[in-house]
Amino acid sequence: MRKLRYLGRRLAGLLGILGIASLAIFLLIEAAPGDPAQIMLGTGAQPDTVAALRAELGLDRPLPLRYLAWLGGVFTGDLGMSYTYGTPVAELIGQRLVVTLPLTAMATLLAVAVALPLGVMAAQNPNRIVDSLATAFSQIGIAVPNFWIGLLLILGVSLGLGWFPTGGFPGWRAGALPALSALVLPAIALAIPQAAVLTRVTRAAVIEVSNEDFIRTARAKGLSRRRALWRHTVPNALLPVVTMLGLQIPFLISGAVLVENVFTLPGIGTLAYQALSQRDLIVVQNVVLFFAVIVLGVNLLVDALYILLDPRLRGSG
């Protein structure tokens, strides 16, 4: 029950933050220069035509009413109609999620699969070749932007070797293998910077836990180095790794905007970029709010993982 109350308080706090974030998103986007109706009709449109379109889109209503109408639509699932595409925003987001969600999932799994073993090996072999390679990988991965990595992958792997397509997405109806093949290089481009950060955090956390008294006690009682590593050191070193993984989700989402445009993927990031350039405010508002929901949801998941990983939280109020 204590765990449920703790998660309930965290959920209530995140909902309050989401409400503040929605207001900030609405005000910031409204402050952006340019009139959507004028942009849609062109600079040569007559003022009465622009005024009629503003009334049709609801842009002539006061800001508080427009905000409340938008927020009410979010809770009921009615995200409004896109100015540019003429289709429901919820439908647009749903169509793009089938690209972005698998892409980010693949990037996250790849980053964890590379960072955890590399960080553990580097921590267990300080000042050796593995440690030097892990350090070099971390520095390069952090320094090089993911969109530049994507361009290098296109030049080297797609155009040079011909192993994967240079861009585009065939759709899941074309089969799982062609769809996943189109996401492999973008996922690698997204995963490398995240894996670089996680490798450094994992290495530091494993070294710190290895010097704790309970690890030395376990070794003194006859526990082998390998068993002490995987039974005690790594599980206790996962807390900062999980924390950093949760903090990286916003950077992963922002990186997806650039990577999807590099690989011409029809994902959420591409939709946000196109909507912003076309001043499709209702699409931009809902996409940014969706990103905020994802980030806050990941934070709640991290809190739940804390309870599972840290015995002190399982028994505390």
UniProtKB/TrEMBL annotation:
CDD domains: TM_PBP2
Entry superkingdom: Bacteria
UniProt GO cellular component terms: plasma membrane
PROSITE patterns: ABC_TM1
Entry's localization field: Cell membrane
GO MF annotations in UniProt: dipeptide transmembrane transporter activity
Topology within the bilayer: Multi-pass membrane protein
Pfam families assigned: BPD_transp_1, BPD_transp_1_N
Domain ABC transmembrane type-1: 97-302
Main location: membrane
Membrane-spanning ranges: 12-32, 97-120, 140-164, 176-196, 288-309
Keyword annotations: Cell membrane, Membrane, Transmembrane, Transmembrane helix, Transport
Family: Belongs to the binding-protein-dependent transport system permease family.
PANTHER family, alphabetized: DIPEPTIDE TRANSPORT SYSTEM PERMEASE PROTEIN DPPB-RELATED
UniProt name for this protein: ABC transporter transmembrane protein (Oligopeptide)
Organism: Oceaniovalibus guishaninsula JLT2003
